[in-house]
Design goal:
The complex is a heterodimer of chains A (about 325) and B (about 250). Chain A has a domain at about 25-35 and about 40-255. Chain A is about 70% helix and about 5% strand. Chain A has helices spanning about 20-25, 25-35, 45-65, 75-90, 95-120, 125-145, 145-150, 175-195, 200-210, 210-215, 220-245, 255-270, 275-295, 300-315, 315-325, and strands spanning about 155, 160-165, 165-170, 250. In chain A, the strands form two sheets. In chain A, strands 1-4 form a two-stranded antiparallel sheet. In chain A, strands 2-3 form a two-stranded antiparallel sheet. In chain A, about 50% of the residues are buried. Chain B has helices spanning about 5, 50-55, 80-85, 100-110, 130-140, 155-165, 185-200, 210-215, 235-240, 240-250; strands at about 10-20, 25-35, 40, 65-70, 70-75, 85-90, 175, 205-210, 220-225, 230-235. The longest helix of chain B has 14 residues, at about 185-200. Chain B folds into two domains: about 1-85 and about 170-255, 3-Layer(aba) Sandwich (Rossmann fold), CATH 3.40.50; about 100-170, no CATH class. Classes of the chains: A mainly alpha (about 325), B alpha/beta (about 250). At the A-B interface, helix 8, helix 9, helix 10 and helix 11 of A face helix 3 and helix 4 of B.
Chain lengths: ~325, ~250
C-alpha cells in the first residue's frame, strides 16, 4: 500500500539523484515552503489554520501512515492539548510558552492512557476502542463546566503579545501569529524527521511491514505501538495547544469525533506514510472548505466528492501521487 | 560460556501438551535436543509438527509441561525475548519485510540486538550493522541482491533471506519450519547445502514434511504422529522402525 518508502538511505549507494537529495533535505524544503506559504494564501488566518491542522495530521500520520494503525480517537489528543493549554492560561495565568508545554504534556499523558487501553487490539477494533475512549474524554470535558465552559467552550484565552528573549511580538498581527505557529511546525518537522531516521523509525517500519517477523527478530511489538501512539499524541497535542492560542477559545467540537475523522481525511487526501502529505491534505481540505463555502453552504458535498475521487483514483493521495510521478 | 551452555543438551521438552479447546494437538512429548547437530522433526500431515515447532519457538505456550533452553525454563516467555536468548526461527510461510530492500531486511533484524527504542540518533550511525548485514547476505548467497526490494525476489531467495535474518541474532539454536516448502528441486538443493553449512557452528532443529529430504543431513530424527512422539533416533534407526514404516507406508514416501 505504501510504496513511497519513508526510508532514509541506509545502504551505502554512491549516486544520489536530485530526488534522493530532496528527500534527504525534506525538513529544509518543507520549512522553506512553510515560510513563503502565507504569501500565496488568500488570507493569513487560513494559512495559520492550515499549519495547525497540517501539524495535527502530521502527528496522526506517524501512527496511521508509518505504523499502519488507524485511530479514530485522535480528537482526544488534539482536544486535550487545546483545553489544557487554555486552562493553564485562563485559570492559572501561565505564560504562553508554559501553557503550550502543559498542553503537550497533557496530550502525552492522555495518549499513554488511551494507548495502554487500546493498543492490544488491531484493525477495526483499534479504531472502535480509540473512538469510544475519545468519546469518554469528550463527555468528561463537556461535564466539567467550571473548568472547560462545557458546551460553550473555553473562552478568554487572550494572548496579545509574545515575549521572547526580551523581544515583544504583537500576537494580534496575523503575520506575526503565523510565524510564531510556523516556528513550532518547523520544530515538529525536525523532530518527526529525526524519529523517522532513528533506529526506532526502523522498528516502526518493521512492525508495519510484518509484525510476526518483527517479533521473531526480537522487537516488542506492543511497546513499539504504544510509544508510537504517545509520540503521535505529542504532535497532536502541540497542534491543539497552538489552536487554542490562535482561536482564543477552545470549542467543545475540538474533542468531537468529527475532529478525529478530519485527521483521517486530511492524511488520506495528502498521502499516508509520506512526510509532507498530511500537510498537503490539510491545505487542500481547508482551502476547499473556505473557497467552496463562499458560494454554497453545501461545501461538504464538494469536499466529500473530492475525497471520494482521491481515494478511488489516487489511493496514494495527492502528495503521494506527485512523489511517485516525479521520482526518476 | 556457563556450565549450562556447555551441556550437550541445548533444548529439552518435558511432558509438553498443547490443547486447542478439546482437541489434543500435542500429547505429553518429552524429548532432548543435542547441541551442535541437526535434528529433524518429521511426520505426516496433521501430526503436530508445526504445533511442536511453535511451542519450541515460543509462538505457543504449552498447555502443560515445560520447555527448557540451556537449562532455563522458557515455557512462559514472550516471543520477542527468544531472539535475545539465542533462539531464532524461520517461518513456514515466507515472512519478510516486503517493501524494504534485502539489505534493510537483514539490517533491521540485526538492529534488534543493539537498539530498539532510540528515537533520536541517526540509524545510519549505529556501528557495524551495514557491514554485518553484508556478511550475512554473502553467507546466504544474496550479496548481489542487496538493493532489491525483498518482495521482488524469487521464492527460494526469499527463504534464504529469511534464514539470513534469523542468523542476525547470532543464535545458538536455529529453528526452521519447512525451509524448502514450495521450492523447486534446484532451490531445495541450494537450501539444503546452506543448512548443512550453518549447522557447522550452531544447533539446527528442522521441521520437515518430506522424510527423504532430511534423512541424508540429519543426525537425529523425531517422528510425530497424531500429536504423539512415535519414534526417535538416528536416521537409520528411524528408517527401520516398524511403526514409522506403517505410518509412512500408507501414504508413500514423498
Amino acid at each position: 500500500m505504501i510504496d513511497i518508502a519513508p526510508t532514509i538511505a541506509t545502504s551505502s549507494s554512491k549516486s544520489y539523484g536530485w530526488f534522493d537529495l530532496a528527500m534527504r533535505h525534506r525538513v529544509l524544503l518543507a520549512s522553506i515552503f512553510v515560510l513563503i506559504f502565507p504569501f500565496v494564501m488568500p488570507f493569513t488566518a487560513l494559512a495559520v489554520n492550515i499549519l495547525i491542522y497540517g501539524l495535527y495530521a502530521l502527528g496522526f500520520n506517524l501512527l496511521f501512515g508509518y505504523l499502519g494503525l488507524l485511530s479514530f480517537g485522535h480528537a482526544a489528543l488534539f482536544g486535550t492539548g487545546a483545553y489544557l493549554c487554555g486552562i493553564a492560561i485562563v485559570h492559572f495565568g501561565l505564560p504562553w510558552y508554559a501553557a503550550i508545554a502543559v498542553g503537550v504534556l497533557s496530550a502525552l499523558v492522555m495518549a499513554t492512557l488511551i494507548g495502554s487501553l487500546a493498543i492490544r487490539t488491531r484493525g477495526i477494533y483499534f479504531a472502535m476502542v480509540t473512538m469510544a475512549l475519545a468519546q469518554c474524554v469528550y463527555y468528561l470535558f463537556y461535564q466539567a463546566v467550571d473548568w472547560t465552559g462545557g458546551e460553550n467552550g473555553l473562552r478568554g484565552i487572550n494572548v496579545r503579545t509574545i515575549n521572547l528573549f526580551g523581544l515583544q511580538f504583537d500576537f494580534i498581527n496575523p503575520l506575526v501569529r503565523y510565524y510564531v505557529v510556523a516556528s513550532f511546525v518547523i520544530l515538529a518537522f525536525f523532530v518527526l524527521s529525526r524519529i523517522l531516521a532513528s533506529p526506532f523509525g526502523a522498528v516502526i517500519e518493521a512492525v508495519r511491514e510484518n509484525e510476526a517477523r518483527a517479533r521473531a527478530s526480537g522487537y516488542n511489538v506492543i511497546a513499539t505501538r504504544l510509544i508510537t501512539f504517545v509520540l503521535s499524541g505529542g504532535f497532536c497535542g502541540l497542534a491543539g495547544a497552538l489552536s487554542a492560542l490562535h482561536l482564543s477559545i477552545v470549542p467543545i467540537e475540538s474533542l468531537h469525533y468529527e475532529t478525529s475523522g478530519t485527521a483521517v481525511m486530511m492524511t488520506l487526501l495528502g498521502g499516508m506514510g509520506t512526510f509532507f502529505g498530511p500537510f498537503v491534505g490539510a491545505a487542500v481540505f481547508l482551502l476547499l472548505e473556505n473557497l467552496v463555502s463562499l458560494w454554497t453552504v453545501h461545501w461538504q458535498l464538494i469536499v466529500g466528492a473530492v475525497f471520494v475521487v482521491c481515494v478511488l483514483f489516487f489511493p496514494e493521495g495527492i502528495w503521494g501521487t506527485i512523489l511517485k510521478r516525479i521520482k526518476p | 560460556m556457563t556450565a549450562s551452555a556447555a551441556s550437550p543438551i541445548i533444548l529439552r521438552t518435558t511432558g509438553v501438551s498443547k490443547m486447542f479447546g478439546n482437541f489434543v494437538a500435542l500429547n505429553n512429548i518429552s524429548a532432548e535436543f543435542e547441541r551442535g547437530v541437526i535434528t529433524s522433526i518429521i511426520g505426516p500431515n496433521g501430526a503436530g509438527k508445526s504445533t511442536y515447532f511453535n511451542v519450541l519457538s515460543g509462538a505457543f505456550r504449552p498447555t502443560t509441561g515445560k520447555v527448557e533452553f540451556e537449562g532455563r525454563d522458557v515455557s512462559n516467555l514472550s516471543q520477542h525475548r527468544f531472539a535475545h536468548l539465542g533462539i531464532a526461527k524461520s517461518f513456514q510461510i515466507t515472512n519478510i519485510f516486503p517493501h524494504l530492500t534485502v539489505h534493510e531486511n537483514v539490517r533491521v533484524a540485526l538492529q534488534a540486538l543493539v537498539s530498539r527504542y532510540d528515537i533520536w540518533r541517526a540509524r545510519s550511525t549505529l556501528p557495524g550493522l551495514t557491514e554485518r548485514a553484508d556478511e550475512l547476505l554473502a553467507l546466504v548467497g544474496l550479496k548481489d541482491r542487496r538493493a532489491r526490494r525483498a518482495r521482488d525476489l524469487a521464492h527460494g531467495e526469499q527463504r534464504a533471506l529469511e534464514i539470513g535474518m534469523a542468523l542476525a541474532a547470532d543464535p545458538r539454536l536455529l529453528l526452521l519450519d519447512e525451509p524448502t516448502a514450495g521450492m523447486s528441486p534446484e532451490e531445495t538443493r541450494i537450501m539444503m547445502d546452506l543448512i548443512v553449512r550453518l549447522a557447522g557452528e550452531r544447533t539446527v532443529i528442522l521441521v520437515e514434511h518430506k522424510m527423504k529430504l532430511v534423512m541424508g543431513i540429519s543426525h537425529r530424527v523425531l517422528v510425530l504422529h497424531h500429536g504423539e512422539l512415535l519414534a526417535q533416533g538416528t536416521p537409520a534407526e528411524v528408517r527401520q522402525n516398524e511403526q514409522v514404516k506403517r505410518v509412512y507406508l500408507g501414504q508413500r514416501e514423498h
